[in-house]
Amino acid sequence: MVSMRALKVGLCAVLCLSAISCGGGGGTAGGGGGGGGTPPPTNNTASVIIDAGPSMQSVNTLFTSVTVCVPGSTTNCQTIDHIQVDTGSYGLRLLASVVTLTLPVETLANGNSLAECTEFVDGFSWGPVVTADIQIAGETAHAVPVQAIGDSRFTNIPAECSGTGGTEEDSVSTFGANGILGIGPFELDCGDCDTATHGLYFACATSCTDTTVPANMQVPNPVTHFAADNNGTIIVLPSVAAGGASNVMGSLIFGIDTQTDNASGTQTVLTVDDNAELLMMFNGQSLASSFIDSGSNGIYFADSSIVTCTAPPSDPTSQIVNFYCPASTLTLPITIQGMNGTMTNNLTFAVGNAITMLDNTDFDAYPQLAGTLPAGNVGTFDYGLPFFYGRRVAVAVQGATTTVGTGPYIAF
Amino acid sequence: MPIFPSIDFKRATLGAALLIAALIPQVASATLGEPEITVQGDVAQAHAAIKSSQDRSNYRVHEIQLPSGTVMREFVAPNGNVFAVAWQGPTRPDLRQALGQYFDAFAAAPRSKFSDRRHVQIQQGDLIVQSGGHMRALRGRAYLQSAIPSGVNLGDLH
Q1: Which candidate in B96, B111, B118 is best for mutational testing of the A interface (most A CBs within 10 A)?
Q2: A145-to-A92, A115, A141, A149, A230 alpha-carbon distances in Å
Q3: pTM to 2 decimals?
Q4: Min CA distance, A245 vs chain B (Å)?
Q5: Contact residues, chain B, for A61 at CB < 8 Å
Q6: Which of A142-146, A150-154, B6-10, B54-58 has the lowest mean pLDDT?
Q7: Which of A98, A118, A312, B29 has the smallest C-beta neighbourhood within 10 Å, fewest atoms?
Q8: So what's the ipTM on this one?
């Protein structure tokens, strides 16, 4: 089984990467194709794929390709594949080990270099903030702050950073991707780092100390810096067979109501709160800290009536025990309500047997993969990438005005 | 004229604040598995503030407001030891301090094959760490299984 998967991943690496590269632009010169007469509209659509990723064991993880250039250069550029597409974070972060360019590190007014400690739930990523010109599909942004994770020039991780605990995710293998494209509904990865220190941004000379940072030096959702189509994104993914599928491909469209291909229609528009969260009603509970998130690889919620998986004798400490393993597939009702009071109608989701699904290691997209919420996370329903299968999901950034509302909102 | 009442008011407020500070019997040590001791100095060093201290039936809870915006809660057993810590906010608290001797076990715990940067459910010996959320909204808790006082509902530890 393992070798089958390795073979499949190898094939995929060749086929899909070239596919993504094409969709992701790949070229160095900006804008559309050129030619005579009226210029064509900006190509606002990047290809995305769900595959096993660089770790060869990713599940329900969405990737795209991003081209970065040394600021101001159209030739000193590099296209990087397998950048995770994440509506649950903000900012472009690249694993420095895959970046062949020399991107300039941001310098604070006092001459210190700027570095960041990005906190994820299960660990942290450390590295300097550099600037790069970014191109995805035909969209371009100039001199955008980007985190270079695991940069060999910044190896002294401050105690305030490592002290947040968990895994140091500073290599492709520990990160599970070549980078991450955070396109959540806010511009910045920190609410108020211009006036307060949070252990996120650090000023580095011989050592690094916690610092405030002007907003324009913080790592932003790069979409908000695009010259056009910068008010949000739309992820379009096909339906996926109940048991799973491999190499599912879809689109990441930039902008909402800025071109014919991203026009709003009759979708449900749910505004989100300052934490990009909204209300989900499930099993008689009102869960006010819930979220829809392309960066979660399953449907995570608490329901003690559903049987969880048993670790196999060959792997007694397997974390599979945190997933659900019902004897037969369950179809459960859920209602999602935005801060604007708008609610979904007749929405259900399915919970399959995680062991049965994951046993098919040829697959990497599993629409019915569901797990337990870490206990203590009261009031949360984490509806991850399975929500996006078979849907067209728009994320409008804060302050964006579209024909159907004002961001921050999620619409589908 | 109005300046005097204002000064008096400020004095009264300061006095009340000092009185309240003196009345709070103890401020939790921020370290799991160790005794609750007075650590006003630690709290001051972290520029943190005690929001409340509350006695529940089987334990005491100290709620600490960190300057990062994160709220940390420490749960103290009747024997005086911290048996659980919980956090909620934009960033994690200093878990090296909060978990003490158990921090290394947390940091070294093998990463789940199914990890997605959104979930942690770790058991390393006596230590349990459970966390969820996403960027700008992290929630979690850590506790020592053997130190949970009898009658405590795990669901209340958050």
Answers
A1: B118
A2: 8, 11, 10, 13, 16
A3: 0.89
A4: 17
A5: 116
A6: B6-10
A7: A312
A8: 0.88
